Amino acid sequence: MEKFKVIEIKESVFEDNNRQADKLRRELKENGTFLLNLMSSPGSGKTCTVLQTIKALEEEINIGVLEADIDSDVDAQAVHETGTRVIQLHTGGMCHLDAEMTRQGIEGLGIDNIDFVILENVGNLVCPAEFDTGAVKNAMILSVPEGDDKPLKYPLMFSKVDVLLVNKIDTIEYFDFDLEAVRERVTKLNPGIEIFPISAKTGEGVEDWANWLRKEIQAWKE
Amino acid sequence: MEKFKVIEIKESVFEDNNRQADKLRRELKENGTFLLNLMSSPGSGKTCTVLQTIKALEEEINIGVLEADIDSDVDAQAVHETGTRVIQLHTGGMCHLDAEMTRQGIEGLGIDNIDFVILENVGNLVCPAEFDTGAVKNAMILSVPEGDDKPLKYPLMFSKVDVLLVNKIDTIEYFDFDLEAVRERVTKLNPGIEIFPISAKTGEGVEDWANWLRKEIQAWKE
Hints:
The structure is a homodimer. By secondary structure, the first copy, chain A, is of the alpha/beta class.
């Protein structure tokens, strides 16, 4: 018996992704389900952050997770072990998810009694920034070892998201990473952005992030 | 006066990228110029590795560098400060380089008296794996903080390259990273691959990598 569903995502046939995204968002609103699109480079700690977020919220909120990857099921396996409903999406060679691909995931997961769906997007700072997935809010992770110059190099991603999580903050003493420079570069691109330094490994800062989510999930239901 | 050239790369008009790549490689061969395509996630240390490689080889080999990024000139600036010939390529939103885009860079750089060109590709583990740039050899960097599971998630990239540099090896004690597991996962995908653990920060392991390059650059000229 398979422990969690694995879906091989099909390429979208719709030309107007924005319209599909708005349609998905309306349906999520009617269902009272908040969809978060979580993006980052490979290895920034998306899955660890998902696990910490589940730990912080699972007693009060029904959570579902969509794990997107080119290949492999290791992330869905890690989430499955927490007892949270999860499915793995395989994108084949595709470097991002659009709204129709996200819909395939949402339908595969089933969201009847789910308040909060986390979509862990493909690890990539370029392509996912260009596609509205239908998410209510978009978040990205920049991890300390990646360096504080990333907002200069991948400006579209930093300008599109509602939240920036600066992860692996527990390793800041081992790397040349200027958090204030990141704040300055990011708010210049995106003045309204929320920034939370966290460590998905130690749990540092996760409560502030969880509080932001509580507020947004509640607001979406109203 | 501009210190180094910045080129806004145009999208290719050629449908058959493999043919364009073979054509570029033949021309490089005639010119005795070895082109290395260096790929990785954002923040794995491509530019630091380029700087260490220049330091190891500049007294014996004429080097040129193509720095590709969505935006910003910070990497070309860093290379320029070493006195090495460099140009910055801006890809706009494009997440990879193909052979025709690489040709625009090679022509912008000028390679008459250049033995070795390093192409620092866009930071991305997905798209660049799908396009032959015309390079003689392909290398990728996996940095320790990204985690040892990356070969499972981005198998195409790991299966396509000739060399894997495992960078930031000086930080291995701060992260859960199993180098032997990486070796096993990568050689399963790509039995002929060369693997060099390095630290582009401390210089550890760089000499083995430089020796491999010396041998390959020499062989290409014969």
